[in-house]
Structure formats: C-alpha cells, structure tokens
Amino acid sequence: MSTATDQPVAVDDITPSRSVSEQARLRWQRIRAGDVGSLPIILGVLVLVVIFQILNQNFLTPRNFVNLVVQMAGITTIAIGVVFVLLLGEIDLSIGYVSAVAAVFMTLRLRPPGGWPWPLAVATALAVVCLIGIGQGLIITRFKLPSFVVTLAGLMVWNGVVLLMIGGGGTVVIQDKTIIGLANYFLPKAMGWLVVIGGVVLFAIGRIQSWRSNRTQGVTTSPLIFMVATIFVVALAGAAVVYVANQDRGVPFVGIFLIVLLVGFTFLAERTRFGRYVYAIGGNAEAARRAGINVSRIRVYVFMISSLMAGMGGIVLSSRLRSVDTAAGGGDLLLNSIAAAVIGGTSLFGGSGRVISAFLGALVIATVNNGMGLLGLSAGVKFVITGLVLLTAVLVDAITRQGRQQSGLA
Amino acid sequence: MAEEPILFLQSVSKRFGAVEALTDVDFEVRPGEVMALVGDNGAGKSTLIKGIAGIYPFDGGQMFWEGKPVKIHGPRDVAPLGIEIVYQDLALADNLDVVANMFLGRERISSFRRLNEAEMEKECSETLKSLSVTTVRSVRQAVAELSGGQRQAIAVAKAVMWNSKVVILDEPTAALGVAQTRQVLDLVRRLADRGLGVVIISHNLHDVFEVADRITVLRLGRRVAVLKSSETNQQEVVHAITAGKLDTVPGMVVQ
C-alpha cells in the first residue's frame, strides 16, 4: 500500500469541480499505474487498420467501411449479452445455437402461406429465447450447477432443436422485406445526417444535465472543458462516420440499431440498480447476498439477457444472409462472440468490464476477418491470427493488471 | 452512559448435536458503551454473534431489544431493529467504489429508475466526515485501492449509516498495522460517543483495554466474567479466559 493513500486528506477538501490540470494529472496517474481502459484496444485497431491498408488499398474505402459495420453487427449484439454473463463471472456456451433457434423460429413463422406479420414473428422468437435463458438460469441457480456445464448441455440441445426445426437439411429463405432490411437497408443520405445530428444533440443534453445536477448537488465533477471536448469529439466522430458512409450506400440501418443497443445496455449496466447488482455479484457475491440482494434472481435475469441478445444477434445475422440453414449458429459464432467481449476488455473472472467492450472486441474481430478476406487468405490463417489477437488482448490486460496491483489500483 | 441495556440476552443456549456451544449465557450492551467480547478459540463468541445476527436460532433463552422481548427468525429481521454486524471479511465488493459499497442494496433512485449518484456521493461523504474518516482520498475510489484500515472504516461507516443503534464488530483490528489499528479504535470510540452500543470481538487484549468500557469473558460456552476495564487488568482477563470460573474471578460484577 502506497503511503500516499494514507495521507490524511479531509473529505471536505475536495473541491466540487476539479481543475483541468488536476483532472489531466489524475488521468495520467491512472494510465501510468496500468489503468489504461480502452486505450490498448483502440491502438490495436489502428495498428490493424494501418497494416491492412498497406497490404491492400481497398481496405480503407467507404464501401469496405460500410461492409465492416454490417459484418460486425451480429457478433456485437450477441457479445453485449456475453458481457453481462462474464460480469457475473459465469459463462454461456449456448448462445450460438440459441441465436439460431430465434432466427430459424422467426424465419419459419414468416414463411407463407399463413406467414405471421414480422413484429409478431420477431416478438415470439425473442420470447422463446428469453424462456430458454430463464430456464437455463433457473437450473444453474436452483441446483447450484456450474453455468459451463448447463449451457454446454444447452449448446447440444439447441443445436439439435435447430436441425429438427429446419429438417431435411435445406435452406429457408426469409420472406419479409422488413427483416431483410434490418441488415440490408441503408439510410438515405439526408436521413443519415438527420439521425447523427439528433443523436449528438441528445448526447449533449444528457451530458450537460448530469454535469449541472452534479454541480448543484456539490459533487465532484470533471472540469467543464472536458465535457465540452467529449461532446465535440462525439459530434466529430458521428459526422465522419456519416460522411464516409454516404460516399457509399449510406449509413446502414443496423449501425443505428447497434448504437441504440449499446446506449440502452450501457444505461442498464451503469445507471440502474440491476446493473449495480450485477457488478456487485461479480465482485463479491457474498457481500451482495448480505446486502439483501436477491442474487439468484439477478443471475437468472442475466442468463435471460444473454439468450435475448443471442436471439437478436441471430436475427441480425440471418437478415444479412437473407436465409437460415442447418449451419446457423454453428462454426465460430459462439467463440467469436465470447472472444469479442474478452478482447474488448471484459474480465472472465467477473466484476470488471463494460458494455462498450462488446463493440470494441467485435470491431477487432470483424477487422481481422474483413482485412484477411480482402487479402484472400485462407480460413486457417484467419483463425490463427484471430487467436493471436485474443491472446494479445488478454496478455495486455494481465500485464496492465500487474501494474495496477503494484500501485494498489487493483 | 445509560444504565438500561439496549440489547440484552438472557441465559441463551445453543447446541450443535452433542456439543454445547453456549450454556445459559447472559450478555448485554448499553447505549454509548463499548462492550468487548473475549474468549479463547471455541469459547462461543462467534456462536453468540451469529445467534444475534439470526444466522441460526438460539435453543434456549430470550433476547430483549430496548427492554422488549424480540424473536429473530432470520438475518433479515436484524437490520430493521437497528443492529448491524461487520464481519471479519467486511463483505465489500472490491470492484465497486466507496459510494457503491456504502449504499449496496439500498441505492437511491431518481427519475427513470436511474441511480442517484450525486445524492449518494454527497451522503457518503457526509457520513465519512461525521465519523472523522479522513484518510479516504476520494469516495469514488474502488475499494480495491484502499488499505486494510480504510476498508475497515468503510465497512463500519456502512454499518452506522442506517441509523443503527448497536454495531457488532468481529475482529476489526486483526489484519491491521499499528497506525491503522489506531484509526479503527478511534472510530470505534467515536461510535460509542455518538450513543451507539458497540460490541467488539477481539483476541488482542491491548486493543480491548484501549477502547472497551466493559469486557465479557466467555469460556467453554459459559460466561465467566463481566469486568469493567477501568477496574481490572490484562492478567485478570487472561486468567478468566484460560481458567475462569465464576467464583474465582476477582472484580466480577455480581448480578
């Protein structure tokens, strides 16, 4: 324990708003101590982008950028659910085939004659996978079984169910324009601008309000200039994305879908009691139990969220392919989804991670796949590289964690 | 110091199969006093505390709270009375910050079911300030970043934040260095000065004499002595712990 921590500093000495230099110093201190946040992964993506661009001039084009967004949508959606499960320190191996259950169920219900309207088909499919998640969660909590085994059984069962539902080994085409549009519709150029402006304005209002309410309640806040800078950076990034996408087909609808999911689930994780309890259980389940938290119920809800997000991701993936077949939910989908959450910085040991890590990790995986696809490399090379990226991500995390421990930050 | 005990256990007993863990033990704590509970390993200290905490029921005897008989059916009955227990493992979530730990399970909510972080942070700072816990640099630090003494202070502050009237501390100084022990003992004293009844379990008689007003000695599941720390010394207490019998202990408060 560092001696600095034991220096008596009165709590009331903290000024309501830190100065810019103080804030910058705090930030730099934490980085030097190994609390690097999303920094390594953003650097990693930049390195990958530079390498792929040098190897193939087609990588950094508007067309490929739009492709990338569409390619990463499914995995990102599923990985959001994985983040919640990992926060508890649990695992869910069933998500791959649960995603297929939702996609196949929905596709079969949409099939004429007598096809259901798409909202009903989607809602029923998602309700079905929610029940799957609740069921798995109840088995895990009631009988105190490891989630690894229960969801491994789920993996096999739902794989079987997918085969049984499709039958005959065929491919079923999605016969609904709206569902196809989920991953294949691009916003008209003006609409893209409208959406990004609206989003940035909402973001700015939210930031300013929380800053002001903190300020009036006399709570420590970061300096005003940092808030303004954050809003500015977000606006700039949004404008760049829309500009680039509009050079090609426009902003993919599924990109907006992803942002809504990320914002919604970040809110759930960081601004609500439920999210607080998920982190608490992942950090110290016994402490959570003694605090009167119904630990089992939270666990069941998390497995429900995991299945729900898998189901949504499955629908996104099937929309992109415009069909489902017997291979749905198989292959590297499960492992890529878990790898995305981990590469993004969510710990496998529970209690540490953020929803945004689903997005960052999926971005890395999609970038690797996309870049190597452009280079015409074989599947074998792809797997090797993805594996090495995963290994690098956890190594960086382990090394920075050692730094955190040495400086008493972990 | 008030004369009426706020918490009074009358001849409570507890058996685990053939083992008699507690036999007709009386125990009391008054508002504004620090009552130490000492005894060798297996003397029944933990059994007594767990009985009060509602982790298991006593087999015999009666518990009185503020003069009225009460029945504890489980751990959930204890906090509403105003009894908080700080276990040795502190039950803090390392990955959460000080504010989140202090309010765990009782978070404040504002509109749209959002956590009211500002209000919680403010109240947390005020509680720490009122207890003169001044070593915590920022209430937004993760608990993992705190020293052992600071963690203990947070766990105690968490316990007294909810208008509790009796706080039971299980070995609060066991893992601490000299300076940190000092801080925690000062904090314990301040709790009693605020009118709380404080029960402190400790193996460290030096600490006990530093902070306690009275000392209850258990030996082999029986209460062998209740001593005023101003009227006794360490040797007497050690004797009571190791060889105590009701009639051989000097300074004994005769009922």
Furnish the topology, listing elements before pairings.
The complex is a heterodimer of chains A (410) and B (255).
Chain A lengths: L2 H4 L13 H13 L6 H17 L6 H26 L7 H16 L7 H25 L4 H20 L4 E3 L3 H8 L4 H28 L7 H24 L5 H19 L1 H11 L1 H6 L4 H27 L1 E3 L7 H11 L12 H19 L4 H28 L4
Antiparallel strand pairs in A: 1-2
Helix pairs in contact in A: 3-16, 4-10, 4-11, 4-14, 4-15, 4-16, 5-6, 5-7, 5-14, 6-7, 6-14, 8-14, 9-10, 11-12, 12-14, 15-16, 15-17, 16-17
Chain B lengths: L6 E10 L2 E11 L4 E6 L5 H8 L7 E6 L2 E3 L7 H4 L1 E4 L11 H5 L14 H14 L17 H13 L5 E5 L7 H16 L3 E5 L3 H7 L2 E6 L2 E7 L5 H10 L12
Parallel strand pairs in B: 3-8, 3-9, 6-7, 7-8
Antiparallel strand pairs in B: 1-2, 1-4, 4-5, 9-10
Helix pairs in contact in B: 5-6
| Tally of discrete structural domains of chain B | 1
Write out the CATH superfamily name of chain B: P-loop containing nucleotide triphosphate hydrolases
Q: Main beta sheet of chain B: strand number and arrangement?
A: 6 strands, mixed
CATH topology of chain B: Rossmann fold
Structural class of chain A: mainly alpha
Shape of chain A: globular
Q: What is the straight-line distance between the termini of chain B? A: 19 Å
**Rounded Rg of chain A:** 22 Å
Low-confidence spans of chain B: none
What is the CATH level 1 assignment of chain B? Alpha Beta
Instruction: Supply Rg of chain B.
Output: 19 Å
Compact summary:
The complex is a heterodimer of chains A (410) and B (255). Chain A has 17 helices and two strands. With 410 residues, chain A is an all-alpha fold.
Describe the structure.
The complex is a heterodimer of chains A (410) and B (255). Chain A has 17 helices and two strands. Chain A is mostly helical and 410 residues long. Chain A has a domain of 232 residues. In chain A, helix 4 crosses helix 10, helix 6 packs antiparallel against helix 14 and helix 11 crosses helix 12. The longest helix of chain A has 28 residues. Chain B is α/β, with parallel strands linked by helices. Chain B has one domain: Rossmann fold (3-Layer(aba) Sandwich). Chain B is built from eight helices and ten strands. In chain B, the strands form two sheets. Chain B has a six-stranded mixed β-sheet with strand order 6-7-8-3-9-10, with helices on both faces. Chain B has a four-stranded antiparallel β-sheet with strand order 2-1-4-5, with helices on one face. The two termini of chain B are 19 Å apart. The chains are: A mainly alpha (410), B alpha/beta (255).
